[in-house]
Amino acid sequence: MDDRGHDVAPAVETTADEIAAMEIRGAATIADAAAEALAIQAERSDADRPDAFEQQLRAAAKTLYETRPTAVSLPNALRYVLAGMDGDTVAELRASIVDRAAEFRRDLDRAQSKLGSVGANRLRDGDVVMTHCHSTDALACLEAAVEDGTEIEAIVKETRPRMQGHITAGQLREWGVPVTVIVDGAARRYLDRADHVLVGADSIAADGSVINKIGTSGLAVLARERGVPVTVAAQTIKLHPDTMTGHTVEIERRDEREVLDEEARAAITDGADGVDDGLTAENPAFDVTPPRYVDAIVTEHGQFPPETIVTLMRELFGETVDEPWEL
Ligand SMILES: O=C(COP(=O)(O)O)[C@H](O)[C@H](O)COP(=O)(O)O
């Protein structure tokens, strides 16, 4: 039950909790889980009238939407699935949502593998690629390169505070790619050995700015200084339609304990049990990389200089501004 009394399936609440707690994380994976959750809501709905069914679906979408604010793939997924809700009876509405969610998830997979082949074309034998965080879109490019027989190596930034670099390292090792893990602060030193920086995106704004894990913008500036090209791998589900009308992208601020846990706080305050009003930590989860530091955005429709991405955005989204549950 949401706070307006609509029945939201417990499985939807669980997915929402898992997204908020980052057990489900990464923009594409979040979108996939949200579409699946809407299908589950449709399947399990006990609504006996079409209007009650529709209200439940919108309430479920809102519950999912309110989990994390930065990855636009989440509202884009919800909007896409809800836009397919069609029919005069509960049975018809249910079938339309289940089909639309399945179609969305299939397309997401296809887009990622298409994008992978486009990105792999940027890589040559012997190339060393520096990564930040864990992006399934970026990894799709590396996987396609490995499948093509291209010999690559990776320098993987560990990505404080949640260490998603370890997930990236694990995946690359599974594919046999030699990996060197570095602390985030070592990026500049290791850029001397890198031929590419390859990252994903949570959102891409109409001006070509890339919103991705905190640390991406600093890495991109350093890469420009070192003459290393920066590639952003991002399916078009990462394009943020609201930025076409001047909206900015909200940057999630997470719990300061991810940066400074109780133990570290107690050590700093030396026995004062961590209580010290003058000691704070800040934990923005994402940052904005201006388009001038990005060489190419690789999508399932090909690669684009960041400044031209708005054309693709208009083509795909028109002038979408409604919230997903207001459709
Ligand atoms: O910044 C992150 C993940 O942040 P978090 O771990 O906080 O969710 C990833 O680079 C993008 O979401 C793209 O991922 P993908 O390419 O898999 O969509």
Quick tags:
Four Helix Bundle (Hemerythrin (Met), subunit A); 327 residues; alpha/beta; 2 domains; Rossmann fold; binds ribulose-1,5-diphosphate; 10 strands
Write the layout of secondary structure elements.
Blueprint: H1 10-20, H2 27-44, H3 50-65, H4 73-83, H5 90-120, E1 127-131, H6 136-147, E2 152-157, H7 165-174, E3 179-182, H8 187-191, E4 196-199, E5 203-204, E6 210-213, H9 216-226, E7 230-233, H10 262-268, E8 286-289, E9 296-299, E10 302-304, H11 309-317
Parallel strand pairs: 1-2, 1-4, 2-3, 4-7, 7-9
Antiparallel strand pairs: 5-6, 6-8, 9-10
Helix pairs in contact: 1-2, 1-3, 2-3, 2-4, 2-5, 3-4, 4-5, 5-6
The protein binds ribulose-1,5-diphosphate.
Ribulose-1,5-diphosphate is lined by residues 25-29, 71, 133, 135-138, 164, 200-202, 212-213, 285.
InterPro entries: IF-2B-related, IF_2B-like_C, Initiation_fac_2B_a/b/d, M1Pi_N, NagB/RpiA_transferase-like, R15Pi
Keywords: Carbohydrate metabolism, Isomerase
Function: Catalyzes the isomerization of ribose 1,5-bisphosphate (R15P) to ribulose 1,5-bisphosphate (RuBP).
